[in-house]
Amino acid sequence: MTDRQCNGEHGIHICELSRQGKHVEIKEVTSYPKFMCMNCGRVANSGNNLCNPRALDDIRPSGT
């Protein structure tokens, strides 16, 4: 399991946008998700909007 961490500018991360009630902005950055936050499981179009991003294509089931 990946350690919890926060990379990049936290002010544009979905968790911070959610805290601020910026739901329209969240909708805009999650329309075609390609990344998942390994901290909270949220998804986004760009890894720049997540604390601990990982490409969806790189996420594999355990044991494979």
Q: What does this protein structure show overall?
A:
This protein has 64 residues and is an alpha+beta fold. It has helices at 14-19, 23-29, and strands at 35-37, 43-44, 53-55. The radius of gyration is 12 Å and the shape is globular.
- Biggest beta-sheet profile: 3 strands, antiparallel
Low-confidence residue ranges: none
Query: First CA to last CA: what distance?
Result: 14 Å
Q: Largest sheet, order of strands side by side?
A: 2-1-3
**Coarse morphology:** globular
Gyration radius, to the nearest Å? Answer: 12 Å
Write down how many β-strands occur, each being a DSSP E stretch of 2 or more residues: 3
Number of domains: 1
How helical, in percent, are the residues? 10-25%
* DSSP helical segment count: 2
Helix and strand content put the structural class at alpha+beta
Please write the string of helix (H) and strand (E) elements: HHEEE
- Calculate the mean pLDDT score and round it: 92
**Residue fraction in strands:** 5-15%
